[in-house]
Amino acid sequence: LSGAGFVARHVIGSRRPDVLRWRALRIAPHINDTLLLGAAVSMLVLARINPFTVPWLSAKLAGLLVYIGLGMVAMRAPPGSSRRLVAFAAALAAFGYIVATAITRSPLGPLALFA
Protein backbone atom coordinates (compact mmCIF):
# COMPACT_ATOMS: atom_id res chain seq x y z
CA LEU A 1 0.00 0.00 0.00
CA SER A 2 2.82 2.40 0.80
CA GLY A 3 4.50 1.98 -2.58
CA ALA A 4 1.23 2.10 -4.52
CA GLY A 5 0.16 5.20 -2.63
CA PHE A 6 3.49 6.89 -3.33
CA VAL A 7 3.20 6.16 -7.06
CA ALA A 8 -0.42 7.36 -7.11
CA ARG A 9 0.45 10.61 -5.32
CA HIS A 10 3.32 11.19 -7.75
CA VAL A 11 1.07 10.68 -10.78
CA ILE A 12 -1.70 12.85 -9.32
CA GLY A 13 0.84 15.52 -8.33
CA SER A 14 2.28 15.55 -11.84
CA ARG A 15 -1.08 15.94 -13.54
CA ARG A 16 -3.28 17.74 -10.98
CA PRO A 17 -1.14 19.12 -8.12
CA ASP A 18 -4.17 20.91 -6.62
CA VAL A 19 -5.76 17.53 -5.80
CA LEU A 20 -2.86 16.73 -3.43
CA ARG A 21 -4.15 19.50 -1.15
CA TRP A 22 -7.25 17.44 -0.36
CA ARG A 23 -7.22 16.56 3.31
CA ALA A 24 -7.71 12.81 2.79
CA LEU A 25 -4.79 12.61 0.35
CA ARG A 26 -2.55 14.48 2.78
CA ILE A 27 -3.44 12.36 5.82
CA ALA A 28 -4.01 8.81 4.47
CA PRO A 29 -0.37 8.07 3.57
CA HIS A 30 0.79 9.07 7.05
CA ILE A 31 -1.84 6.88 8.71
CA ASN A 32 -0.94 3.90 6.52
CA ASP A 33 2.81 4.28 7.02
CA THR A 34 2.42 4.81 10.77
CA LEU A 35 0.35 1.62 11.05
CA LEU A 36 2.93 -0.33 9.03
CA LEU A 37 5.82 0.99 11.12
CA GLY A 38 3.89 0.35 14.35
CA ALA A 39 3.21 -3.23 13.31
CA ALA A 40 6.90 -3.76 12.51
CA VAL A 41 8.02 -2.34 15.85
CA SER A 42 5.41 -4.43 17.68
CA MET A 43 6.62 -7.61 15.98
CA LEU A 44 10.23 -6.81 16.89
CA VAL A 45 9.30 -6.15 20.52
CA LEU A 46 7.15 -9.28 20.83
CA ALA A 47 9.85 -11.45 19.23
CA ARG A 48 12.55 -9.68 21.29
CA ILE A 49 14.63 -8.92 18.22
CA ASN A 50 17.10 -6.05 18.09
CA PRO A 51 17.07 -5.00 14.43
CA PHE A 52 20.63 -3.67 14.70
CA THR A 53 21.96 -7.16 15.46
CA VAL A 54 20.32 -8.70 12.39
CA PRO A 55 22.14 -7.44 9.26
CA TRP A 56 19.20 -7.67 6.86
CA LEU A 57 16.90 -5.80 9.26
CA SER A 58 19.51 -3.06 9.69
CA ALA A 59 19.79 -2.80 5.90
CA LYS A 60 16.02 -2.68 5.58
CA LEU A 61 15.81 0.16 8.12
CA ALA A 62 18.53 2.07 6.27
CA GLY A 63 16.60 1.55 3.03
CA LEU A 64 13.45 2.84 4.71
CA LEU A 65 15.21 6.05 5.77
CA VAL A 66 16.50 6.54 2.22
CA TYR A 67 13.00 5.88 0.81
CA ILE A 68 11.45 8.42 3.18
CA GLY A 69 14.07 11.07 2.41
CA LEU A 70 13.86 10.64 -1.36
CA GLY A 71 10.07 10.51 -1.19
CA MET A 72 10.03 13.85 0.62
CA VAL A 73 12.28 15.39 -2.03
CA ALA A 74 10.11 13.96 -4.82
CA MET A 75 6.84 15.19 -3.33
CA ARG A 76 8.14 18.67 -2.47
CA ALA A 77 9.87 19.38 -5.80
CA PRO A 78 7.90 21.29 -8.43
CA PRO A 79 5.76 19.09 -10.73
CA GLY A 80 7.62 18.13 -13.89
CA SER A 81 11.04 19.13 -12.56
CA SER A 82 14.00 16.88 -13.17
CA ARG A 83 14.69 16.82 -9.41
CA ARG A 84 11.20 15.43 -8.81
CA LEU A 85 11.60 12.71 -11.44
CA VAL A 86 15.09 11.66 -10.29
CA ALA A 87 14.05 11.58 -6.62
CA PHE A 88 10.91 9.62 -7.54
CA ALA A 89 12.89 7.02 -9.50
CA ALA A 90 15.49 6.75 -6.72
CA ALA A 91 12.74 6.39 -4.10
CA LEU A 92 11.19 3.55 -6.12
CA ALA A 93 14.61 1.89 -6.32
CA ALA A 94 14.94 2.21 -2.54
CA PHE A 95 11.46 0.73 -2.12
CA GLY A 96 12.44 -2.16 -4.37
CA TYR A 97 15.57 -2.69 -2.28
CA ILE A 98 13.46 -2.81 0.90
CA VAL A 99 11.13 -5.41 -0.61
CA ALA A 100 14.00 -7.50 -1.99
CA THR A 101 15.82 -7.34 1.34
CA ALA A 102 12.71 -8.56 3.15
CA ILE A 103 12.18 -11.41 0.68
CA THR A 104 15.80 -12.59 0.55
CA ARG A 105 16.62 -11.76 4.18
CA SER A 106 19.96 -10.53 2.94
CA PRO A 107 21.45 -7.02 3.12
CA LEU A 108 22.38 -7.53 -0.54
CA GLY A 109 18.70 -7.19 -1.38
CA PRO A 110 18.08 -7.94 -5.05
CA LEU A 111 21.71 -8.96 -5.60
CA ALA A 112 21.15 -11.92 -3.27
CA LEU A 113 18.89 -13.42 -5.93
CA PHE A 114 21.95 -13.85 -8.15
CA ALA A 115 24.40 -15.00 -5.48
Report on the structure:
Helix 1 (about 1-15) runs antiparallel to helix 2 and helix 3 (about 55-75) packs antiparallel against helix 4 (about 80-105). The chain has about 120 residues and is mostly helical. The protein is built from four helices and no strands. The chain has helices at about 1-15, 25-45, 55-75, 80-105.
N/C terminus separation: 29 Å
Question: How many distinct helices?
Answer: 4
What's the oligomerization state?
A: single chain
Structural class: mainly alpha
Mean pLDDT across every amino acid position:
91
Low-confidence stretches: none
Helix percent reads: over 70%
What's the Cα radius of gyration?
16 Å
What's the story with the biggest beta sheet? Answer: none
Topology as a string of helices (H) and strands (E)? HHHH
Shape: globular
Defining key terms:
mainly alpha; 115 residues; single chain; 4 helices
Question: Which SSEs are present, and which pair or pack?
Answer:
Layout: H1 2-15, H2 23-47, H3 55-76, H4 82-104
